[in-house]
């Protein structure tokens, strides 16, 4: 194999505002694995609140390049076991794992679903993110949208705003990105109308000292994001969260995500396949798991003004899986 990479700047269609800050662009590391004139692609983005530094990733790739290029073309699970020996950050490991699945599928002329015997019977619709804004502007964006599912971002708790959203006849999830406190969450989970939200994602800052007051058996469908990095925390989180958000870069790629989904199902979690703000490289990777999940939040490429790739698409919330081999990714 030949390993190469590039850092690209993804300009956003509009300012992306969440409790962590305001963003007008994202930098993304695109990893390429080439063999037999065939290329597989993977992606990870620079996320400041995860302390992701792409230049550090590039330095790491330069160190491990020869080790990767000496690997024979084996099954992706074997390649992933090799990746684990390199002790890489999960974001970088995910980019390499996804690139290899894309390459391997293209070489085998089989899609990810075929390689993993996934029967695609029904795909959940993806939500579109409504950034932090005045409640009036957020509601107007919802009403003007062609999408049918919405994830509304908020920065701190506002009971009047929440009641305004609950009065709408739309499929709405609430994502506070850790900006609520314990008192807010106690009110929500004891408020029967909170059942109208499809889920309430990562209400407080991560940590057991916060989530221990959440009750999975009450009204709110609490969904763990930062509190659920990989499959190791699933049993501990079960009394507190009904749902989990699986992001490939958090857990380390498609290979561990498959295992995580299986374990989460055994524990009766509801599962969402999520994303960062990323190009169609990352979204195409996440999309191949959508049929195994209850929720999808794969709007990342729809927020980008200069998408660099083609593959699976999310059109007004409808997931249109690529029928091409691997992950179906092509760089434009």
Describe the structure.
The chain has 332 residues and is an alpha/beta fold. 33% of the residues lie in helices and 23% in strands. It has twelve helices and 15 strands. The chain has helices at 54-69, 76-85, 90-108, 112-115, 135-144, 159-166, 182-189, 208-211, 234-237, 248-251, 254-266, 280-287; strands at 2-18, 21-35, 38-45, 128-130, 149-153, 171-175, 200-201, 222-224, 243-246, 270-273, 295-296, 309-310, 313-315, 318-320, 330-331. An eight-stranded parallel beta sheet has the order 4-5-6-7-8-9-10-11. Strands 1-2-3 form a three-stranded antiparallel beta sheet. Strand 2 and strand 3 form a beta hairpin. It is globular.
Tertiary shape? globular
Taking pLDDT < 50 over at least 5 consecutive residues as the criterion, the unreliable ranges are none
Biggest sheet, in brief? 8 strands, parallel
Helix/strand order: EEEHHHHEHEHEHEHEHEHHEHEEEEE
Termini gap: 22 Å
């Amino acid at each position: 194999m030949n390993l190469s990479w590039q850092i690209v700047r993804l300009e956003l269609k509009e300012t992306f505002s969440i409790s962590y800050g305001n963003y007008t662009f994202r930098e993304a590391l695109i990893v390429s694995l080439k063999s037999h004139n065939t290329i597989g692609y993977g992606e990870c983005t620079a996320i400041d609140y995860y302390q992701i530094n792409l230049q550090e990733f590039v330095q790491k790739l330069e160190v491990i390049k020869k080790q990767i290029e000496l690997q024979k073309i084996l099954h992706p699970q074997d390649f992933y076991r090799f990746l684990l020996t390199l002790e890489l950050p999960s974001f970088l490991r995910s980019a390499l794992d996804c690139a290899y699945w894309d390459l391997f599928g293209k070489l085998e002329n089989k899609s990810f679903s075929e390689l993993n015997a996934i029967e695609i019977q029904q795909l959940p619709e993806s939500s579109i993110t409504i950034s932090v804004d005045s409640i009036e502007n957020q509601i107007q964006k919802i009403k003007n949208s062609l999408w049918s599912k919405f994830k509304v971002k908020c920065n701190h708790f506002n009971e009047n705003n929440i009641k305004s959203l609950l009065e709408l006849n739309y499929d709405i999830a609430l994502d506070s990105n850790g900006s609520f406190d314990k008192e807010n969450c106690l009110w929500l989970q004891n408020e029967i109308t909170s059942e109208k939200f499809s889920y309430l994602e990562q209400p407080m800052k991560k940590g057991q000292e916060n989530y221990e007051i959440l009750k999975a058996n009450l009204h709110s469908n609490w969904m763990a994001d930062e509190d659920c990095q990989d499959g190791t925390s699933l049993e501990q989180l079960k009394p507190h969260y009904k749902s989990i958000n699986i992001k490939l870069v958090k857990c380390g790629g498609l290979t561990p995500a498959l295992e995580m989904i299986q374990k989460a199902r055994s524990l009766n979690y509801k599962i969402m396949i999520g994303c960062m703000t990323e190009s169609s490289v990352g979204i195409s990777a996440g999309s191949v798991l959508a049929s195994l999940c209850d929720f999808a939040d794969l709007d990342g490429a729809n927020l980008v003004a200069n998408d660099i790739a083609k593959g699976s698409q999310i059109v007004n919330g409808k997931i249109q899986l690529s029928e091409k081999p691997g992950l179906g990714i092509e760089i434009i």
